Amino acid sequence: MAEDKSKHFSRIIDSGISANHSAGLYELLQPIDDASHTRDRKRSPPDSACTRGTRVEVVKKVTAWTADNISAADEPHILWMHGYVGSGKSAVSQEVCDTSERQDRPVASFFFFRNAGDRSKIWRLATTLASQMADMIPETEPFVRAAVKAKPALLRQDEAGISLQSRMRCLVYAPFKAAVQRGTGLRASTRLGGPSEEGSTTLAALARGPFLIVLDGLDECDNKDEVQELIDGMFTFFDDNPFIPLRVFITSRVEQHIQSHLDVPGVRLDNLVDHCSDEDIATFLDVLFKNETRRNPVIRAYISEHGEWPSPKDRQKLVKHIGGSFIFASTVFKFIMSTAESGSSATPMDRLPLALKMNPGLDGLYAQTMARSEHLPHSPDIISTIALLEVPLPMSGIAELLGISTYEVVNVLVNLQAIIQVPGTDDIPVTLFHTSLRDFLTTQSRSGRFFAHPRQHVRLFLRCLQCELVHRQHEVESLTNRSQRKPAAVYALQNSAAHLNRGSDLFESTEFDCAIQLCRETLGLYPDAPELIQSLGRVTFHRARRTGSLVDLEETISLNREALELRPSLHPDRSLSLNNLGNALQDRYRHTRIVADLEEAISLQREALELRPPPHPERSLTLNNLASALRDSYQCTRTVADLEEAISLQREALELRSSPHPDHAILLRNLTISLHDMCEAMHTPPYLQEAILHCEELLTSHYLVGHEYRPETLNRLASLHQKRSGGTEQSH
User: Fold this and answer.
1) pTM beyond 0.70
2) Which of 23, 190, 201, 656 could form a disulfide with 186 if both were Cys (CB 3.0 to 4.6 A apart)?
3) What confidence score (pLDDT) does residue 251 get?
4) Is 323 left (phi over 0), alpha (psi -120 to 50) or beta?
């Protein structure tokens, strides 16, 4: 069939049949001017380009492939580079196109862009590529004209008339093949099924390498069925013509309709995430800051007085905060350098610290993507679980933890691959492409109906207990080895406590009852297991805090003493038992005011802290617990040394849990309370200033939005300001 069409094409040309020569090919095809790499990027997004010194290796790798001649029948003609939003796909595409032009190799391109009229549709792709091809390879023009003469409907700018495969075949593939056949000196009917006997083509445009077609942002095209048709048509053409000197470079996010057709043998795959480096982001920011410094007299004056800005430490923080996303880097930089709003005197130096706490610009995209799966069963639970998990789980682990089927998890996630990394195998965890997505999902004011409510921690904790019970039952019944634990069971053992802590204020009484019942059932299977004794003690402790029950508190203390006895001095989890028992004794002191309980609590927390030297992951928690006990001691004895030590410990804890860590706000609040107490005890300006700064930071935190602690913090800040100004009025 391919041979017959090629003969037909040649006969049209050789007999002198041509399309309307009174009109230029450009006017005939009416390509989309702003879809190619030569567009004015300032007017026609994406305004993406590789900053000098960035993306060097990945661009070099792609251009080497595009320039290499086809030498084997099974060599891939298609390279698909995928990556998450903001990873720089369009910038790489632009640089590949520009590099090809600089090296005098022919390239045609189409940059899809959502909500940009015809650039988000596929129907003018063939005419646009054909127009560019004729400019690069003039020998193709008469064949394009012949195709239009034979089928005028090829010029339609909508879906009516002729299929996409026919448009691409008639306007791009067949004209290019015919021109190449003529250039080899062979008969037009010769099938490009093997190397030419006469050597390489004599087409001047192909002297330095194959013709390259670049399709950027294929996921931005609205016509999903036609995208698949486009890919299928490429395979058909390349299968029929394995040595044709044509390569196609495609970039997109990972979307199911694209992945299902391109993640196949015969396509070369590359993940741009593998090429995202902090060094590239640092180089990108260096160029931006240098250019802005030359233009901005305020920055130059600041540098003249204070030295380098941003400082190396702040640059490093900014690079880490950005996390490999060029679009995020660009958005953050624009925020830092934005013109001060009316009534604001903020300078770029003032905005830099704020930029380290913000993730602007991606919320709309996240919401748009999330909407694709919100109608599916279990979608809110699945998304909230991924956002709130302490460590990522594979899809089967998520399903087991939630008590649903794996296929239901897959069904939700296949639509979200632009922002969530969905692995192809079940031994790899599901991860978020960027940490800003977790911030979005856990901030109700930003995510709205997609908010991952903290109540989900309660469900996750109960599910952890259920998974643990089921696994322990299987161990008893079938003597299952612990090394055979499923991912959800391993997760439950290691992380259930974190979900209990994060959701403890949100439990209903019946949920506490259910949790205690599950713990007692599991402990009944292994009565001497310290981790199970400890698990029951945690739940009774949190219920005691909610209800004020001394009965629960007494049981908690008894359970924790039992667990501690089973964990002697060299046991790796002894510090955990010390910590838990210390907390329970401190709570009983607050009920009974028995000083011996507080003294023992302080002693236990000191021992726990010694067992958790830096960089122990739980050191911050123990620092905070010891500080809390010392502050209680200060309230009891008014010994300022206790309060000074508490503040020192809280400062260290806060430094170990910098924003946006979920514990940062509560640690900041605790330090603010201690500093306020110190200001009440003695008027010390440094403590006063530090307390005011921390109160102001706390009030900007999402943690206090709608929280009962907000009025308390406002009152504390007012009191501190009055102390600084010498005021004596009470704050209300």
Assistant:
1) no
2) 190
3) 96
4) left
